[in-house]
Specification:
This protein is mostly helical. Helices cover about 60% and strands about 0% of the residues.
Length: about 150
C-alpha cells in the first residue's frame, strides 16, 4: 500500500451539490491506493497490536480516517469528529448530504424540468448543467432515463 496519500488526496470540499461526485472520487482514490477495505468495512476494527503488521495497519487506518475530514469545510467536522472509522465518518457525511431526500428530490426535479438553454448559456454549459442535475438526482436514488435526458437536451 502507498503511504504517501497526502500527495494527491482529493480535497474538494463536499456539500449537497457535489457529494455524489466527491464520494466517487474518494472511492477511486482510496481503491487505487488499496485502502477501500477500510471504508467498505473489511478493516472496520482497530488493528490488533499483537499482529506483525500492526504499525502498517495503524498508519493506513489513520491515513484513511484523514480522507473524509479533509473533504469537508471546518464547520462540518463536528458531524464526523467522533467517528472511530472512515466508514462511520463517510456514513455520517452521506446522511447529512443526502438527508431530506424528499425535499431535495422535489427541488432538483423542478430545476431539471425548468432548465432552458438561453442565449446566455452555451450549449456545452447547458448540457453540463443537465448532467449535473441528473447526477445530483442519482445521488438520492432518483433515476433519469436516457430518453428523458436526451429530450431535455433537445
Amino acid at each position: 500500500m502507498n503511504t504517501h496519500m497526502g500527495n494527491v488526496i482529493p480535497t474538494e470540499k463536499l456539500d449537497r451539490s457535489n457529494f455524489a461526485s466527491g464520494e466517487y472520487k474518494m472511492y477511486q482514490y482510496l481503491f487505487g491506493q488499496g485502502y477501500w477495505s477500510y471504508i467498505k468495512g473489511a478493516q472496520e476494527t482497530q488493528p490488533n497490536s499483537a499482529h506483525a503488521d500492526y504499525l502498517v495497519q495503524e498508519q493506513a487506518a489513520s491515513c484513511v480516517l484523514y480522507c473524509p475530514p479533509s473533504c469537508v469545510h471546518d464547520h462540518m467536522l463536528c458531524y464526523i469528529r467522533e467517528a472511530k472509522t472512515s466508514k462511520e465518518a463517510l456514513g455520517n457525511l452521506k446522511k447529512i448530504f443526502t438527508g431530506n431526500a424528499g425535499t431535495r428530490k422535489l427541488q432538483l426535479r423542478q430545476k431539471f424540468n425548468n432548465i432552458q438553454q438561453r442565449d446566455i448559456m452555451s450549449i456545452p454549459s447547458y448540457i453540463l448543467k443537465i448532467k449535473e442535475l441528473c447526477d445530483a438526482l442519482r445521488s438520492i436514488n432518483v433515476r433519469i432515463d436516457d430518453d428523458e435526458m436526451l429530450q431535455k437536451c433537445l
